[in-house]
Amino acid sequence: MEKNTIALLYDFDKTLSTRDMQEFGFLKDIIHQSPADFWQQVNAFTKANQADPILSYLWLMLLKAREQGICITRELLQKTGQTIEFFPGVLDWFELVNQQAQARGLQLEHYILSSGLCEIIEGTPIGKYFKRIYGCEYCYDKNGAAFWPKTMVNYTVKTQYLYRINKGILDLSDPRDINAYMPYGQRRIGFSQMVYIGDGLTDVPCMRLVKENGGIAIAVYAQKSEDIAKELLAQNRVKSAVPADYRKDAPLYGIVMQLLDSLK
Known about the structure:
The protein folds into two domains: 5-18 and 85-263, Rossmann fold, CATH 3.40.50.1000; 22-81, no CATH class. It is 41% helix and 18% strand. It has helices at 25-30, 35-49, 53-67, 74-81, 90-103, 118-122, 158-167, 175-179, 204-212, 227-234, 251-263, and strands at 5-10, 107-117, 132-140, 146-151, 194-198, 216-221, 240-243. The longest helix is centred in the first third of the chain and has 15 residues, at 35-49. The protein starts with a strand and ends with a helix.
């Protein structure tokens, strides 16, 4: 086990970004549809077909684009990532905490576990900081056009990636080794060396898995939207519930620094 390596794990939508990632460049500039209308159609499709809501939104993104004669490509999705709005301090967070970890002789690795799209996250200014981005992703044909989801991540699927990070088995095409027995001492990053940061109920399985195995789970919330986060704290599902503020003088930074100090 790599004792000096700490994994910081993040949800994306409403954890790092202020809204769902589709609501920026894709809905506004590509298919010109209001978020309320799009998500209403996703919910209706999900209910009518007894479908997974994540697969529903992935399908409707393809459908709505095709109806307007637009071909979804990786490059188009990455471009919409440039329009994402982040909570205060996010753009500086990764360099800041990496420097603090290095000063303590520690190595930080950042991971995304999101039901959003990898391609959009890759196109953001912070995409370069993640060792892996685990999220939904399309397959592309020989012309570069998206035609089918190759990965789908919902709230329970997220936990698979915690075990991949724990064991150091990051290759998604490897279903055998991830399920094989591995002694705890041989695993690359222990759960006690993980911090999971999320905003809501879809993060509960990951929060619980990390917290019950000695790690730290933190719920973040937007201004005046703390009800869910405080409910998670009251239910002992997270260690702390703090504003989604990643600046140096905010509580979240202090919590992470306390953890680094305890491990140096």
